Amino acid sequence: MSTYSIELQDETLQVNFxxxxxxxxxxxxxxxxxxxxxxxxxMTGGQLLKINGxxxxxxxxxxxxxxSHIYGAVAVFxxxxxxxxxxxxxxxxYKLGDLID
Length: 101
Hints:
It is a single chain. By secondary structure, the protein is an alpha/beta fold. The chain has one domain (4-100). It has helices spanning 23-39, 57-67, and strands at 4-9, 12-17, 49-52, 73-78, 83-89, 99-100. The protein has a six-stranded mixed beta sheet, covered by helices on one side. A hairpin with a 2-residue loop joins strand 1 and strand 2. The radius of gyration is 13 Å and the shape is globular.
């Protein structure tokens, strides 16, 4: 079992903690999973990627770094608002702070 799980469902990256571990191990596992998904063609990029699920700050930085190179915009789910908030954008169709259902 891995310390972190990442699964792409349509345009949403579902993330979650797995086996108990410290962030130094979790970030390594998250990076390996993303690299494997990319090399297998599971994650090829696009205009928008939404991320949903529990995430630590170090893992968030790993995910942001990896996916911002292949997606035009990245939005993260905010459970308080009940929507995704655009937090990275190189795509003029999405502005920083845009709320997405």
